[in-house]
Amino acid sequence: MSDDAALAWVERVATFCVDEWGLPPITGRVLGWLMICDPPEQSAGAIAETIGASRASLTSNMRYLTAIELIRRVRKPGDRTTYFRIEDDAWRKVVHRKLAGLSTFTTIARDGLDLTGDGPRSERIRAADASMSWLQKLATQDPPPAL
Fold first, then answer.
1. Is 38 helix (H, G, I), strand (E, B) or coil?
2. Residue 95 — very low, low, confident or very high, per pLDDT cuts 50/70/90?
3. What is the pTM of this model?
4. pLDDT digits (tens, 9 = 90+) for 59-84
5. Contacts of 133 (CB under 8 A, 6+ apart)
6. How far apart are the first and last CA of the chain?
7. Is the CA virtual torsion 50, 55, 61, 67 positive or negative?
8. 22 Cβ neighbours under 8 A, 6+ residues apart
9. Are strands 71-75 and 42-43 parallel, antiparallel or unpaired?
10. Mean pLDDT for the chain overall
11. Which one, of 68, 40, 65, 44, lies nearest residue 56 by Cα?
């Protein structure tokens, strides 16, 4: 795999993270790079250089990704450098957070139905509730196997 191809793929991950989740591009680039890099543990300096980010910008994004447990700090014996690695279950965590959000919205929609009753205003809420309920049901059926 060429460096250009790898960086193009990282940029696709970043674009997805921006478009789908509203994350800053650098956050998506960090996730993309940590998914594809070799070795899997990278120093902040190496990540910043590879994705073309300033150390200051990278630091705040690494702090965020560490706080939400998508990446973790790694230490190597005899080495004072801190390395970062994407968590093995990072994407499972993302999916679980999204499912929790669906559950929260389902509760809100049902409260809205209690508020509006059976009138014409309730049809839009009922449609939202039906969609969220369908997604929740779909998500609980035959989960993908663990890798």
1. coil
2. confident
3. 0.76
4. 999 999 999 889 999 999 999 999 99
5. 106
6. 24
7. positive
8. none
9. unpaired
10. 88
11. 44
